[in-house]
Write a structure and sequence with these properties.
Layout: E1 3-8, H1 15-26, E2 29-32, H2 33-41, H3 49-69, E3 74-79, H4 83-94, E4 99-104, H5 109-124, H6 135-144, E5 155-156
Parallel strand pairs: 1-3, 1-4, 2-3
Antiparallel strand pairs: 4-5
Amino acid sequence: MAKIYLMCGKLCSGKSTRAEQLRREHRAVLLSVDEITLALFGQDAGENHDTYVERAEDYLYKKSLEILEVGIDVVMDRGFWTKAERDFAREFYGSRGISWEFVFIDISDEEWDRRIDKRNSDTEAGRIDAYYVDEGLRRKFDGIFQRPGDDEIMSSERS
């Protein structure tokens, strides 16, 4: 049976890099909320950004079920910043008998600041297609993120 890998960590923590590694290792499909919203709206989603992200997430949950149903592993590059989001994902997949694993990327505050600065520089120079993280967005996500407990970062193996 196929499995879903759920990427957990702050923005700019290395989730997308690790998600790509997992995609290759497991010959999985990578589903990314940022990829969808950036493709559709670029940096210009404005005050509707959270609504667009929510819609993209709903779509990816449904799409992941289709992919898993045909026996292909999925990597969900999303963040799962809050305990409620992680609880929802565990219930969503677990109640359907789908194996899941959270992959938590943990970095120090100093490294997080460095990565945000590098990402912003690369975004401004056009080297990557990613969201620019200004000071307001940095504070917003720092306030939202709830570090997962050891009991949350585990996997559900089904046979």
